[in-house]
Amino acid sequence: MGNSYAGQLRTTRFEEVLHNSIEASLRSNTVVPRPVFSQLYLETEQPLAHDGRTENDDEDDEVGSESNSPPIPYQMKPPPEGCCTIDGFCQTGRDLRLSSLASDPSDVTPGFTLVGVKSPSLPETLLVCAVDSRFLPDERGHNALLGFLGNCMGCGEKGFRYFTEFSNHINLKLNTQPKKQKHLKYHLYRNNQGVLVKGAPICWRGHDGRMRQMGSSLSEGHVTSDEQTANMALTHPTNTPGSYTAGSNVDPISLPQITDVPHSLTNGNAAVTQPPSNPSRPGRPSAKGSHANAGPPKKRHKGWSPESSANSLPESTAKTSPSSSALSTLSVSSVITNGARSETAAPLSSLQGSSLTPPSPPGVSVTIPDQLLNTCRLQPVIFKGHGPLPQLTGNANEVLLSSLLQSCYLSSQTLPRVYQHYGPSPIQPLSTEMQILLTVYYLVQLGPDQVPLIEDLEQIFMRSWRESHLSEIRQYQQPQTPASQGRHYGIETTTTLPGLPQHFSLPPQSQPLTPSQLPWLAQLAASSCGEGVVVLGEKIGSLAQGLQQMFSRLMEGRLENTNYVVIIVTTPGQETQSCMVVTGKHQCRALAESMYSPKEGLKEINQQLSTGVAQELIHYCNSQQDGDLDSLLDSATVDSSEPSPLSSSQESAEERSLKTTHSPKEPNSPKDSHKQCSKDLPSPKERASSPKDTCSEYSVEWREVRPIQLAVARKLLSHVCAIADSSTQNLDLGSFDRVSFLILVPSSEVTFQQTVLQLWKSGVLQELGGSDQKCVSQREAERYVVKMDQSAQARIDSLIQEAQSNSYTLYILVHDHAHCDINSASHSSSDSGLGLVDQLLNSRQVRDALNILILHVTSFPFALQTQYTRISPYNEIHWPSAFSNDVDLYHEKTRYFGVSELLESTRSGSSLPLMRHDSSFESMASALEERFPKLHSAVIRTTVLIQHYCVALMAASGRISSSHNLHKHTSVETLEIVQSLLTASQQCPAHHGHMVLLRIPSLALAAWAHRRLSRVRRQLGLEESFEIILGNPNQALNIGPSFTDQIKTWLKIQDADWVPQTYLELEALPCILILSGAEPLGESLPRSLKYCDLRVISCSYLQRTTLEQELGLAAYLVRAESRPPHNPGPGSDLLESDAEKLSSTDNEEEEIQENRDSPLSCSQQLQSCPDSGALDPVPAQSTTSPNVFQKGIMDAIQPPSQSQTQLQPQTPLFPYPQATIHQPQVQSYSPAQPIFQLQPQPQIQSQNQSLSQTNSQPYTQTLPQHQSLSQMQIPLPQTQSHPLSQSRRQHSKSTSSGSSPRASSPHQSCSWARGVSRPPSVLLPRALYDIITASDSSGLPRCTSFLPHMSVAWASSFRPLLSKMMTCTEQSLYYRQWTVPRSYHMDSSNCTEGRSDNFHPRRLLLSGPPQVGKTGAYLHFLGILSRMLIRLMEVDIYDEEDINYSAQAEGVLYHPPNASWPNPDIMRTMPFDYTIHDPKYDDISSVYSPGSTPSFEGNPVRQEDVYLRRRTSRIKLSKYAAYNTYHHCEQCHQYLGFNPRYQMYESTLHAFTFTHLLLGEEIQLYFIIPKSKEHYFYFSQPGGQLESMRLPLTSDWNPDCIKSPIFTPTTGRHEHGLFNLYHAMDGASHLHILVVKEYEMAVYKKYWPNHIMLVLPTVFNAAGIGAAHFLIKELSHHNLELERSRRLEGGGPTVDVWPFIILADDSCVMWNAVDLDARNGSVEHAVSLKQILQHMEACPDLAHYGLCGIRKWSSRGLTGNKQRELFSRGHLHDFLLLNVDQSQNVQYDQNRFTCHDVDFTLRLHSAGLLVCRFNSFSVMKKQIAIGGYKTFIIKTKTTDVPTSVGPSQYICAPDSKHLFLATPAQLLLEKYLQHTRQKLFPLSTKNYTHPVLSVDCYLNLGPEVTVCFVSSRPHSVNISTTGLLFSGLLLCFADSFVTPGFLKKFTFLKGATLCVISADRSSLRQTVGRLELEEEWRFRLSDEFQTANAKEDRPLFFLTGKHI
Q1: What is the reported pLDDT for 388?
Q2: Percent of the chain as helix, strand, coil, to the nearest 5
């Protein structure tokens, strides 16, 4: 039997492996020895050879068979009597067929897999059975244990150990020996509908290799967007805490089914294995390394080398000091990974009986000891793990419960769907035992002060799981190339776990843990850290017993040095249970406080302050000094009249500044500080009154818009245009004529005022037409900014109403600082102020309004980038990087200094880092936290900090005796801050100083700190030295009147009522700003900010947004010149790398080169700050938005002059050379700055300082901006700066100490001027400092891997890590895939069934670093958007005065002034005006008429491209304009046929044939007729032959209808032609036909699907405008006859059919009418085309006219006679009403390209037809530089490339060798005659009295030649030529009406030129002979010419001669 030796080991192999294992374990430094069995039964990952097989594939040729014996005849054992033997049923009679069991629920034993068995007797179906996964191969055909273990899915019988036995039970009825490889054929799995279906074939090697291709159906490796967060409420109904129900919005169908996952896995799949190293990463051994086993590997048992399991960390990681990877407090809200809402910390008593705790066994409870908190001085935190927690009784509020750990366990056991839906595989989640062991390992690795982070533990589980299933996971990743995979998702198979201490090592590879092994392995692991972690596992029978034992030890003091207790229960026969108890004081406090929501935390602080609990702490702190602090202060208090000790010194300011500037190494004692501050400041009024007390280095100028802000504004505009240009019709920019806007800002008065001020200064209001005044009042600007408080509702409602009533106005809602309120309105109370954005911006009215566009602006866009976001990824705009490879892309004068630079400063060893922590403060705070365990840490830390400030003030003031040793009771950092604050203003004549920012989130604590500091300041007599400001977001800025006067003096403000309203206006004011509020709300800070003290911000809420917005307060702009070039780091951090890229969607090429430069710095990300126009928050995209920091960095708003300050400590006494500091510049305020972005510009007056001084002061402290954060993995020195070096750092800013003389210039004495270009120093809590400066395995700052925002959750624990190569766009896509909004997020409701996205089409997101200038950018965007809309509403109209008007125009008026229509009788008496007045024809030959003498000098010769340079005017479109294809208003949708709600209009092609004599053959035309327009035509039958176009009757009249068909010939203008006449016709019904050439038919049909088109015959493809008009006219006449015939057949009158058509140019855009009744003369106003046509069609005598038209518009009005005749006879152009009936005998010349209308009008008049121009109407023609009938290019036949061919080359002698041209012959002839008039008609040049006689046609002979037109037709009307001598004769295609007698009527000058033109040489000779021309004209052979055309192109021939 094939299974007889299943599981046996060969003796030699076993001994060999055992020996190697023992040897390896002895040499190994890991805790757990390497199990032997894993080497025997598991194979290492082997690299694939070139043929796709592993290197050992050749050794496995026998694997296909369990036995080497050949098949033998087999006889099945007979079944027991009475058994069922039916095929497809088991022996108990239960159905096993897949078709029967497909929908039945199946209970599969954990560790078993459903398999389809192939039965020989039932080939068409599969039988269902369950097989132990260990005995099945993986996808590559490996790892199947020998043997078999199966269960019957019919009767449920289990434990079949032999496949033979099992095959008998299921009635396989085999004829051969049963083999599992032969009959176990397919995996079975349940599809999305829950139906059991056949999956992939089982990959038995040698039988079926198809499984190797299985992974090809996956496109994204093991991470796909399908992965959803597990909804614990659905998947674990028994163990689900109630807090998980928030995840119920997850689609239950998509949830991983984990109910069958066992808690205890025994198949080894949960073992932690070390992944093979990525060979591309240095320092890691490859899994390909040599095996330690001797001898060749035997079949199936391939051994692991001991080295392969060693944890190989990158070299840089291994050396990282523990401090660099320190982790801070566990943030409850940031570590939930299952989409559930964060739990609220409630005392245990409030949780009892709730659904948080699973039901515990009856009668099992644990009593909490009395006085636990008082005895142990801590509140233990119990983390539920596996199994139900027993009920806790007793003093339950002294213990905290958390289900976070349990959630982490559950989520890491929920496999993503990608591993479930592609057939079963051996991939299983981690076992319970492995989770517990990994938890213990993690706790052991934590430092004594570190707090566990659930996200770290989650990543450990993920890594362990990935490594244990490396081969399986790789199969799912095969289809994706590593490049795309890493680029898009940032997946790295790294051996260092992100987010956990870099020296953390996982347990070695092992066999599956058994419950019995777990306790001793866990204790073994815990033993390495002494008492830090205690494992209670042995002799523990239940969790209750373990908890009771833990409480006993705790009360007895045996856990004094223990931080964590892990309780493990492994009772035989039961599932393993566990829980973890935190017993470390620091950890318990941090965890307890993190369980509060931010709002609850502040509430708790307020309660402690209000109930007096904190008074004991305050009293204790006061009593620590030598003598009570208050009594010391009282003793120092002086009477206001008593001179202050500070005033005793008479030193000059210069001397003082010298003495106060110490070298960095000189300690600074209190005595020194006494001298430093030893002079009392005069009062501000005294200062102001003294003219000499002014600072020459101070200047504040408004900055202009920076180039990068301009670029961002244009980028915003291009995105808006992209929305408009898309086919979705979501935004029709062409329908708006103005822009209005409303800026929504957070509920902060200072932010509101700074936005108002910036808006006021930007000039946007004037540009948008908000006011015509030159300077709008600031009150006016307040109407456009609204705070998001309860008052916002009314403002938004009024805007919505306004938008509904003004559909032609585009409203922009700018949501600034968009990350501040993203709460759902339905989950927020009305009085909380939250949820307003959701309620207002996401309302249906705003969403559906087509004229409202929303722009979200933020530095931290992560919360808006979730799976349910409303913003399309294509509508995101990311702030570009200003520098690439240290090249200034935007020529910025400033560089942005953000978080990445702060981080960089922590690594530079040459100077004090700008970001640091204060160890002495931390130690004092920690001691008090242990002493006062019930107080919130914020209360303790704030009290300590304010105490430090008070003591430092006392020490620095000099009023307290030095014997008190005050400096012992404060920290060096605090002392330095206070001394700098006090001494800075002493060094400047104008008393400029610095700002110190003290960030205290609690309003109550901030108010207490303000009172306390103010009291100390008052008692020390320092009220005039500096101001203390309480920054409450709910209140306006309030500073003392003396300081207000000081600022007004500096800024030269005369307004008596002026007070500063923004922090920016406090520039150079010495002050302490206590900034309160749960989070910064967008307040911008002045350049004089020197210290940013964040030592008391909360460490509990570790979200990326929270951290970055606090650090963003220090974001700064420095002048580009003040930083030396830096070398880019080897790699780029996420934070910054992104910043370097403009936007991944915009320029990919730049990304490649830029991407190396900019480290994403964590710092960058941390910036969140008010975006005052000047500095804007970067997208906290931090990691993803690296750019932002970096990018924006430079753009920051700093004026060039600001950079003059040194970046690093540089001695203030070294004056800057004038060249560096003072650059003359004009800086106007730019919208990009914060409104009052006052920009101090220190200026040096000393003009003759040598540049060498500058060179001698290198800025050593400048931080390389592009240094990548990844380099932060090196151990970071814990800078505990020496008291002295820190306190004097600011004043010792020279790194090259003696290289230049200390020439202390009196002009450099202003401390503010020295520091204004140096970024502020930042002080952080130690816990946050450690986190921010740590890097994860990807080299990114640790904080980038945190949850991005409190209101979102991770979609899955199986997400990849962020990659530091990600761009901003890729980072956005990452968050869009891997985060989901919580139920209280406003986007949680934005999930539509059946849609993958639900984006709002008119919503944009602008993200950029804090303080980078986003406000200025979007204000500028509003301005250029307004200009663009105006530009869209304007067109360039030809605006030229009529030409050739005689000054002696007669003043006779033929018609009365009020005549509506022309009178035919009067018209006939009016002379015909032969003169051409249209200015477009100012370069053609004038037409002779008696009495007219044109001036040839007035019309200079123009070039061919003359129409490009003709005079135009920009005119705003009226509501009656014609439009091109870019216009998509709501009313036009149906007219154009583009409405997406309807199917695209169908069109049919109809042929139409008619014959014309001139054409000589039958002409076939085609009509393209949309279905909706077929009613305009008559068909022989519906859908049949086209018969005619329906024409109305003359007697018909409809006020909403135009009777005349409109024909528009066009070419090359399918996009730009003005064919949309909907508005021009004012909605009237009309028949409009586009006449197009055949080769353009398709493109015109595409752009104008609802228009009728007449397609010209193929022969007209190269023809000119004459051919189009010819065919239109002749077709219309033919149609008129057909319609008359049809009417006649119907019994109607024939003469009553309407005979008029309209010929319109494709550039006619608007029409006007003249109001002659106006008192001020004639006034033109826009009218609709409908009004003009109906007026003309209503003319009672219209049938008498052959041609009517209107004049061309000119801004000069009616040229010539002011009382211009209402109607005139003359030439008509562009817009014609043609009577095809009367003019049937006069045709357009089909060959003409130019002047065809002049020629036609002359012939029409000579035929006796009336021509009338309606002068009361005018047409405006738009300048369209594209297409048209003029754009014929003359090129040679040999090449298609246009070449320069002169007019002389247009003709040649017949039969000569000449360069032939690929141009129509007629065009060549016309161009030749136009340009060679002097050669052809020399006597005619400038000779008006002797014109050239042109018979029956008009040709342009150039502007200097006059042509006299005569018609040879009988009865024609010609001018009198009696006595007229002609200088030439032109005969063009002379017909039979031209006779010798006709020509003899005319007299010619001697030498006059004759030109005879014919189609060929023979007809040319015939014409000469027939007309007897040789009698009077002399010809030569050389005078015969032809156009330069090849014979096949039918050239024209002409002959010239001279008159005898």
Answers
A1: 92
A2: 35, 15, 50
Cα gap 134→961, rounded to integer Å: 82
What secondary structure letter does DSSP report for 480? S
DSSP string over 1868-1907: HHHHHHHH-HHHH-GGGTT-TTSPEEEES------TT-EE
Q: What is the per-residue pLDDT across 706-735, written as a single tens digit (0 to 9) for each?
A: 999 999 999 999 999 999 888 777 888 878
Classify 744 as helix, strand or coil: strand
Burial of 1526 (0-12, 13-18, 19+ CB in 10 A): middle
Distances (CA, A) of 1058 to 257, 1045, 1049, 1061, 1784: 67, 9, 12, 9, 83
Report the SS3 class of residue 216.
helix
pTM of the model: 0.67
Name beta bridge partners: 1547. 1570
What length does the chain have? 2004
Q: Give me the DSSP letters along 1132-1153.
A: --HHHHHHHSS-TTT-HHHHHH
DSSP code of residue 68? S
Residue 98 and residue 87: Cα distance in Å, rounded? 13
Let me know: does 712 contact 877? Beta carbons within 8 Å: yes
Concatenating the DSSP letter of every residue in 1069-1130 gives: --EEEEE-SSS--S----TTEEEEE-TTS-SS---HHHHHHHHGGG-EEEEGGGS---PPPS
Identify the three-state secondary structure at position 862. Answer: helix
- Identify the DSSP state of 1860: -
Q: In angstroms, rounded to a whole number, what is the distance separating the alpha carbons of residues 136 and 142?
A: 9
- Dihedral (Cα; 1401, 1403, 1404, 1407), 10-degree rounding: -140
Tell me which residue of 597, 461, 321, 498 sits closest to 1344, measured CA to CA: 498
Pairing of strands 1708-1715, 1810-1821: antiparallel
| Residue 474: strand pairing partners | none
Q: What is the pLDDT of residues 1212-1267, one digit of tens each?
A: 333 333 333 333 333 333 333 333 333 333 333 333 333 333 333 333 333 333 33
Collect contacts of 1567-1572 with beta carbons under 8 A, ≥24 apart: 1567/1652, 1567/1653, 1567/1654, 1567/1655, 1568/1641, 1568/1645, 1568/1652, 1568/1653, 1568/1655, 1569/1652, 1570/1537, 1570/1545, 1570/1546, 1570/1649, 1570/1650, 1570/1651, 1570/1652, 1571/1545, 1571/1546, 1571/1547, 1572/1537, 1572/1545, 1572/1650
Residue with tokens 């600022």: 1047
Cα 1312 versus chain centre, distance:
39
Quote the CA–CA distance of 617 and 611 in Å, as a whole number.
13
d(CA 796, CA 786): 9
Dist. CA 135–CA 146, nearest whole Å? 6
Highest mean pLDDT among 291-305, 646-660, 1790-1804: 1790-1804
Mark out the alpha helices in 1628-1664 (DSSP H runs): 1641-1647
Strand partners, 1724: 1714
CB 136 within 8 A of CB 163: no
For CA atoms 1788, 1792, 1797, 1801, give the dihedral sign.
negative
- Determine the Cα–Cα distance for residues 1365 and 290; give it in Å rounded to an integer: 33
Burial of residue 1267, with CB atoms counted within 10 A of its CB: 0-12 exposed, 13-18 middle, 19 or more buried? buried
Task: Check if the beta carbon of residue 1159 is closer than 8 Å to that of residue 1340.
Answer: no
More confident residue, 475 or 935: 935
Contact 999, 1113 (CB under 8 A): yes
How many alpha carbons fall within 13 Å on the CB side of residue 559? 27
Q: Which among 1149, 1525, 1133, 1144 is positioned nearest to 1334, based on CA atoms? A: 1133
> How far is Cα 1832 from Cα 1852, in angstroms, rounded to an integer?
21
Kindly give the interhelix angle for 1368-1378 and 1186-1195, rounded to the nearest 10 degrees. Answer: 140
Closest among 477, 55, 34 to 288, alpha carbons compared: 55
**CA-based diameter of the chain, in Å?**
143
